[in-house]
Amino acid sequence: MDQVEKVIDEKIQGKPLLTKQKEGNSKKLFIESYGCQMNMNDSEIVAAILAEEGFNTTKNLEDADLVLVNTCSIREKAETTIRNRLKKYNAVKKVNPKMKVGVLGCMAERLKAKFLEEEKIVDLVVGPDAYRDLPNLVEEVEAGRDAVNVILSKEETYADVSPVRLNSNGVSAFVSITRGCDNMCTFCVVPFTRGRERSRDPQSIIEEVRAMHDRNFKEITLLGQNVDSYLWYGGGLKKDFHKASEMAQATAVNFAQLLDMCATEFPKMRFRFSTSNPQDMTLDVIHIMAKHKNICKYIHLPIQSGSNRMLKAMNRLHTREEYLELVENIYKIIPEMNLSQDMIAGFCGETEEDHKDTLDLMEKVKYSFGFMFAYSERPGTLAAKKMEDDIPLAVKKRRLQEIINLQQKHSLYRTKEQVGKIQEVLIEGTSKKSENEWKGRNTQNTVVVFPKEQYKLGDFVNVKIEDCTSTTLKGTAVGYSENN
Ligand code: SAH
Ligand code: F3S
């Protein structure tokens, strides 16, 4: 029988599970992802590429012919977690010796062929720009040879690959719009593992969103290491923009324009984006957010430190004052906006004074949420080469704890602001705590829990907020929102 592409919509406990599988595929792929949302989306791209090669995904490690792990290098701990996971694969391989194991993503790019020596279980090493080569590489591995491709690309955006939505709730999905990063923050390994920055054709983005819209998805998060730096001028690296023809430069599409296009074309869908680097964020984006009800009023706006001295050492190309001015303008244009942060505690040379600057900046911004880390030196980065990782672990941990404690206080401040209000919530699934309650998120990206009543997964519902913790809002639905 011909391999006929088929979309299987399984209804499991009222939750549509969308898996694009190919009829007739006999081999089984087990794929798991660590790290950022970009990795989760890349795994969906990989599953789509391998669906053409006879692989359907399985959730059962023991059944797999091919096991792929999409890896993260951002901190040492992320790499340790993955090495431990490889031990688990090893145990399974003892029972099923035909099973092949591949490593994808940032650790693959960082360690390259060294991986094959260090971890005997690994047969395949593939960097983030080489997934299109997977069919050839898998063939090599099936023939009993190790295979490695870690070539970084100037053009690859996987624009034409329609991702298989793994672990999807059928409501919200990620769509990648840029790849790589040119910012060269001195602590960060991403520019080395994901290469130079390039943007994806806006038409292909719109078409992917349309496909999700037609499958009844309701919320799209536009993804990139640095989305505000999005710039499409016909293809090619961001840093080569100045070499493009006058015509290409004049007709280029920037991030504010892309957001405007998405929100206008799909008024019934909600849009989010991540991540923004403050140095590339323009007020144009904020004005477009204000113009469209369907762009969520939430920005993840990492700063890493509140100290000018640290920002400079980190090669973040803005000052604390410029950041605070940006934040003030954002709150002025969109008063209900919530902002979240990434912070690094104990970067090279950080003094108590620098740390206090971070706490002080947090007091001024009052973020709704944060991802906070102790500095972890990464081989190959400028900080590793040129700066001393001189803050004792105990001091890093204490400072980190102070940042986390303050963040918790501010998260509660922000959730308390919502109590008493009626907010539009998109239902994303059943609450973890109770079968009788839905969970969804409001425009500010805060989780809202409320009784199910007659509402369904994927509905936009107006919820009266009655109570809160620092992470969750509780309420009661008062009806469908006009968006429904
Ligand atoms: N723009 C990216 C940022 C990637 S890294 C994005 O899309 O999220 C995510 C966060 O990890 C950074 O903002 C930073 O706070 C943290 N991080 C990166 N390198 C780190 C390091 N060497 N040690 C500790 N935290 C780090
Ligand atoms: Fe890393 Fe800085 Fe880019 S944190 S991903 S180099 S914006």
In short:
This protein is α/β, with parallel strands linked by helices and 484 residues long.
List the helices and strands and how they pair.
Blueprint: E1 5-12, E2 15-22, E3 27-33, H1 37-51, E4 55-57, E5 66-71, H2 76-95, E6 100-105, H3 106-111, H4 114-118, E7 124-126, H5 134-142, E8 147-149, E9 172-176, E10 178-179, H6 190-194, E11 198-199, H7 202-214, E12 219-223, E13 231-232, H8 246-250, E14 253-254, H9 255-265, E15 270-274, H10 283-291, E16 298-300, H11 308-313, H12 320-333, E17 338-345, H13 352-365, E18 369-374, H14 382-386, H15 393-418, E19 422-430, E20 437-441, E21 447-451, E22 460-468, E23 472-480
Parallel strand pairs: 3-4, 3-5, 5-6, 6-7, 7-8, 9-12, 12-15, 16-17, 17-18, 21-23
Antiparallel strand pairs: 1-2, 10-11, 13-14, 19-20, 19-22, 20-21, 22-23
Bound molecules: S-adenosyl-L-homocysteine (SAH) and FE3-S4 cluster.
FE3-S4 cluster binds at residues 181, 183-185, 188, 190-191, 225-226, 277.
**Strands, total number:** 23
Shape: globular
Bound molecules: S-adenosyl-L-homocysteine, FE3-S4 cluster
**First CA to last CA: what distance?**
41 Å
How confident is the prediction overall: mean pLDDT? 93
**What is the percent of helical residues?**
25-40%
Strand content: 25-35%
From the alpha carbons, calculate the radius of gyration and give it in angstroms. Answer: 23 Å
| Poorly predicted regions | 1-19
Describe the structure.
By secondary structure, this protein is of the alpha/beta class. Residues 1-19 have low confidence and may be disordered. The chain starts with a strand and ends with a strand. Helix 13 (352-365) packs parallel to helix 15 (393-418). The chain has 15 helices and 23 strands. Strand 5 (66-71), helix 2 and strand 6 (100-105) form a beta-alpha-beta unit. It is globular. The site of S-adenosyl-L-homocysteine (SAH) has 17 residues, from strand 17.
